[in-house]
Structures are given as C-alpha cells and as structure tokens.
Amino acid sequence: MIRWILIALAIAAAVAGWWYFRDHGPEALRYDTAPIARGDLTQVVQATGILNPVLNVQVGSQISGNIQKLYADFNSNVKKGEIVAELDPAIYKAIVHQQEADLASAKAALELAQLNAKRKNDLLQQHAAPQADVDTANATLHQAEATVKMKDANLEKARADLDHCTIYSPIDGTVISRAVDVGQTVAAAMNAPVLFTVANDLKKMQIDSSVAEADVGNVELDQAVDFTVDAFPFRTFHGTVVQVRNAATTVQNVVTYDVVISVANEDLKLKPGMTTTLSIVIAQRENVLKLPNAALRFRPPVEVAATPVPVKGSPTPAPPKGPGGPGGKGRKGGGGPRGERTIYVLKAGAAKPDPVQVKLGISDGITSEILSGLEEGQSVVTGIENPPPVNGMQKSSNPISGGGPRFR
Fold it and tell me: Which of 118, 135, 148, 295 could form a disulfide with 106 if both were Cys (CB 3.0 to 4.6 A apart)?
C-alpha cells in the first residue's frame, strides 16, 4: 500500500508540475511591426531667425540742438531728399553771421597788406626803403592771404552746420521707428544720435538665421525655405537662401553661421523683428519606399539575433536605376545615402524576425528612404510588446521607451 501511495503521489506531482509550467512557462515574444510603404520624403535643417528689412537706414543728426519740427512719424512713407525733421537754427545762423564778419575783416586786412607791400616795393626800386622793410611787408601780405582762406573755411563750415539743421531722408522707404519728439535736445558730441529708422521696402525682406555648424554644410544657395511666425501660427511662409556667411558666431561654445533668406512680403503681414522658426529644404524625394526610424533603433534579444541577410547583388548596392529610389518618380536636392544598416523583418506566420541589410537614403527624422534591401508591403520590427524578464525586471525593446528597464 505504501508503495502504491508513493507512486500515486509522484504521478500527481508530475501532472501538477506539467499543468503549472504549461500556464506559467515563458511566453512567446510578440513584436510591434510597421509596413514598408511609399510616399514623399523631405529632409530639412531646422533653425530660427529674425525678420529684417533688406535695407535699413538709421537717420541721425550731425549737430546738436533742439528738435523744432518733425515731418515724419511711425509708418510714414518718405521719399529720398524729403525733409523729415528740423533743428532750431538760431544759434547756427548767429555763427554764420559771425564768420561772415570775420571774413570781411580778414579781407580788409588783406587789402591793407597788399597796399603796404606794393608801397614798400616801389620805395625799394627808388632805393628809399631797406630790404628788411620790404620782406616784412611781403610776409604780412602772405599772412593776410592765409587768414582770409581760414576765415572762408570757417564760414563754409558754419553754413554746413546751418544746413544740417534740416534733416532729409536718405532713401525711399517707410519710417519704422522714431526716437525723438518736438522740443527734445539731441547731443552729437561723441556720436550721431538716431532720430528715425527707415526701411527701404517692406515688401522685400530677409531673415537672418543662425544655423548650427553641424548643419551648415548641407545649406546651399537657392534652397527653398518654409517658415512660420508666432503672429500667424497656422500659415506657412516661403523664402529662398541667398547667402551663407562665413563669419562664425560663438555663444556658450555653440558655433553658428548666419544664413540670409530672401522673403517676399507683398501683403505686408510680416513685420521687422519677428522671430521665425524655419526649415531649410535640403533634399526631397517623391514616391519612395519609407522605413520608420524606430526600426533602425530596434535591437532584438540575444537568442533572436542572427547573421544579417545581405542585400541582393553586390556588397555595396549601386544607386537605383530610376530617380527617387526603387520605382520613385522624382529626386531633388542633396542628402546622399547614409550607408547600410541592419533591420529585422517579420514574415507572415513566422515566430522570429529575420535580419536584413538595407541601404538608406535621406531621412526626415521620422522615416528614412530605402534605396535597396526591402520591398513595399514587408513588415519591419519596431519593438517588442512583451520583453522577456531580466533579473526580476522586464527590459523593454520598444525604441520609443528608450529600452530602459521596467519593473513588473
């Protein structure tokens, strides 16, 4: 009886163990997949910038004085040579009169010196005057001539200062800033005070953008630019790269370069000083195979990983015959291939994915262009729904979660 009881207990334990491990054994991995599809792809460089007029002139005053009249205000349209302001000319008129009097006095002294020199020279011819007196008279004459020239120059400067009391617009444009009011005193002792800021043509503007040194190598002239401003968040404006400046700007060890972008502003919606968020179009592809970038970041468990399946053909696949990749319709801009990468393809009904090498083209940060290695409709693995436990923790292979450990 004891022997049969022990046999029965052993059979019951075996059945219970089989039943337990059947329900609690390792679960088959379930993979997140995404299909390979066709579509358009655009690679861009992101940057920020400030809208400015193409020609921006600061109108200042070369002399000091009180503002007597203002003929322009904010948003005033002015023409080249049009009067925009006047300073009180009373002091400068008085200086002109004083210099005119000084010049008249100098001319009178010159006439006297001329007569005296002529008289001395006549006496010398008659041997009635010493040579020293003649030399003194000639020197006095030359001094009088120099004094007249000096007084004439002082008068010319005084008249120029008087003319500068009237301030003219140097260009055709629109006044975007006025810094003074009537009665205000401007002082031009060290530098010229700014009275107005005049923009030449607000229908043609430019963006001065800061592009990081890692991206500036892809920026070229005549590339298209899309940008937005906070004032119109749902409207996309367009521009063109017209200049890539070589002067670098370093702020907190970050090196950037100024890229100038030409912008048409026919409806005058864009204002000077607006902050822009722009995308410089580096390359465009139409109707190409697109691979989710999550598939590039996926790394399978060790037991699933295998030797990658090489791309059909030569080790380094030749560029696609048709423009825009396999079956593509168009190929525009730079952004060359980024080399070969290994991704994992899950066939229908298969339990494990197969590694495949693909050759990539451009990327928009979310998807990448497939030059060779995959076909439309294939499913690529982007993550694992139920990662296997590791040391009591469950490690995620989902690239979106960053692959970090998750506690059960």
Answer: 148
Backbone angles phi, psi at 99, to 5 degrees: -70, -35
DSSP state of 114: H
Tokens of 361: 């083209």
The predicted-structure confidence for 239-260, as pLDDT tens digits, reads as follows: 999 999 999 999 999 999 999 9
The C-alpha atoms of residue 231 and residue 276 are separated, in whole angstroms, by 10
Buried b (16+ CB within 10 A) or exposed e, 220-248: eeebbbebbbeeeeeeebebebbebeeee
Q: Which two tokens stand for residue 362?
A: 């451009």
From residue 218, alpha-carbon distances to 207, 246, 259 in Å are: 18, 14, 12
pLDDT tens digits, 187-230: 887 777 899 999 998 999 999 999 999 999 999 999 999 999 99
Q: Identify the residue whose tokens are 């600061």.
A: 58
Q: How far is CA 222 from CA 259, 262, 298, 323, in A?
A: 12, 10, 38, 22
Q: Which residues contact 219 (CB under 8 A, 6 or more apart)?
A: 45, 211, 241, 244, 259, 280, 282
Find residue 279's DSSP bridge partners: 46, 226
d(CA 308, CA 342): 7
